[in-house]
Fold these 2 entries.
Entry 1:
Amino acid sequence: MNDARPLLMIPGPIEISDTVADAAGIRPPSHVAPSFIEAFGEALEALREVWCAGPDSQPFVVAGGGTLAMEAAATNLLDPGERAVVVNTGYFGDRMLEMLRRRGVQTVDVSAPLGDAPSLDAVREALAAAPAKVLFATHVDTSTGVRVDAAALAALAREHGALSCFDGVCATAGETFLQADWGADVYLTASQKAVGLPAGLALWVASPAAMKARAGLHAPPSMSLDWSVWEPIQAAYEARSPSYFSTPATTLVWALRAGLREILDRADSPRAAMLQRFAEHDRAARAMRAAWAVLGLKPLPVRDDLQANTLSALWYPEGVDKGVLGRIKAHGAIVAGGLHPAAKTRYFRVGHMGEVTRRPSDLIRTVRAVAQGLADVGHAADVEAACDAAREVLSEADAG
Ligand SMILES: *Cc1c(COP(=O)(O)O)cnc(C)c1O
């Protein structure tokens, strides 16, 4: 790694592995080349395993971003006039609500003050008040760093006869998520977040019940977002035969196979590999939090159990503003400003997902850059103590 290049430590796009970078650097293959068909087929199979999804679930790989995957879910699960409950923890919950409203869906917004998540009781009440077809939640809201209890929400949805759909764009392959065990119906993400690829792919896995919801719609979604249009394409590639609706992002699919295989090949079984990866993210997050505490940085999430493992959202200390971001970059790490409109100028965000969670030196370099940046703008920061605090957590016995 070239030390002159600052590390990209924002909540996506993120640092990618050399394996993924090499795969993304090939000459673009044809979408009907036998080697590409094989890569696409393997990527789809691997997607199910990274999602810890059932063998009867349907994986989708479509050129686009997380927003496209969200809109596809919003328009394939519900007809206009049907009812959805949205567990809203920030910017991306607001976005999902707007998409559902544009679809003509009756929405119930179950929200909480900035940095908090609605209680399970509040969600239960909303589901009990009137039948809802789908419960939506953002697994980790990237604007607040708040993680919801996805297992409990999926269970609540099932109890009330509703489907569950989770926006995992800042979580998938970083935060624990067991789609089959939890009975979650849709888990969606984009390639540039915790999955660890360049931007450009929308990725999701749908349960048989979710696919049935699409099949039962009266008003089909727009064609390029229609699961029913995309499903036969995915099925064909998984059966190792080409099929055309719209040209796949061939280079990115090639990189996707490499990235997912790299994740899964690190243990004896796909399940063990995923549990190990979740544990690596947990340990990295605890290391970063230990450092932030030494630096006197307070998280946006109002309770420990709400803090995501994939990023830290941190209030600027007294007298510090976004000017510090340039200083942090000068010391070797690119971090992000605020995103939530209610507090945008008052906090910043540090991503810690993907390959860097396996590289203590990158995490320590990030802590050091943040600490030095803060010191540059006059915030008393014990740079070495912060690095030591992170190092101590990272030296724990192998998280796997
Ligand atoms: C980044 C993000 C999105 C949007 O993804 P794009 O690829 O930028 O469209 C949606 N939801 C969450 C939680 C995100 O972090």
Note: The pocket of pyridoxal-5'-phosphate is lined by residues 12, 65-67, 92, 138, 141-142, 167, 169-170, 190 (CB under 6 Å).
Entry 2:
Amino acid sequence: MQFVDLPKQYQLYKEEIQERLDAVLTSCRFINGPAVAELEKALSENTGSPYVIACSSGTDALLLGLLALGVKAGDEVLVPDFTFIATAEVVSFLGAVPVFVDVEPDTLNIDPAKVEGRISDRTVGMIPVSLYGQCAEFDELNRIASAHGLWIMEDGAQSYGATYNGRKSCTLTSIATTSFFPAKPLGCYGDGGAIFTDDETISRKLTMLRNHGQAKRYQHSLIGTNGRLDTIQAAVLLAKLAHFDDEVDARNKVAAKYTEFLANRVRTPVVRPQNRSVWAQYTIRTDKRDDVIAHLKTNGIPTAVHYPIPLHQQEAFAKHREPDELFPESLAASKTVVSLPMHPFLSDDEIETVAQHVLAALKQ
Ligand SMILES: *Cc1c(COP(=O)(O)O)cnc(C)c1O
């Protein structure tokens, strides 16, 4: 069994993907080819975000976002303690300081009630993550940000396609990012990402920053980087985007089926009423995690742990290590979470098989 069945997806969309790729290969316009702008327009229509800037990865999207926001050495940026390292890494990369915030016990998204206690004179903004495909509490987070004069940027690497009160992820904050890493809900065939904004000035800055700070060739007004999305990746994404809404429906059916089998036996994922998840992961929680992983592995079922070490304990951040007592929920999650195979093509039989093996492992 595949954890994310990309081979199956390719077989299903093969003709459309190959047709799009062939157009790029025939034109040989590998950098800034027409598919890139076409993708940006399609993503803008799909989300309702006025400006979309495609870029080289979800990590670069975050980095470009911070550059556009003017983050500098010494600034503090609030990030959840329980996320993939990229969210915080980009802050440190610019010489700023990631300040970790504990997460909510049920959704594992940044806890709005714990944000204000972490704000200092040096805090400039926050990067809430919409973990596992479910949006964080953006009404409350936006309110806190605006009350303290902070910017807020959603890390929607796992949540492209999710909704919050009927509004799309990546449009809930003035600036937001996503990733098209192959295993994300909308993935390309290599690295890719995008930034979304409703601010025209920021959008113009981002378009320059991702291309060496130039608006015109060899006229560099900003210090930027090579952060462009390959035309080939834009072509793959355009082919896949046509099927994406159906895939999100299918993911929700898979998740509902898992929950049917597993509810009350393990802690199944909690989705708040205002949210619709894209199920980047279907992550359960159990004290018998190691038994579950071992038993599933024996039966040919892959699992993954997102994430085994909270950020405040990562060696890379040892310089400003903070006490475990500040992050009880994040720590508890790191010891109990395990993600099951999740993709739109899981059959009812496969879902039942995975669930039965989870239940069998718990009985041992
Ligand atoms: C995957 C991911 C990223 C980084 O995206 P890449 O495209 O791999 O650089 C950032 N934040 C979160 C929460 C992610 O899951």
Note: The mean pLDDT is 97.
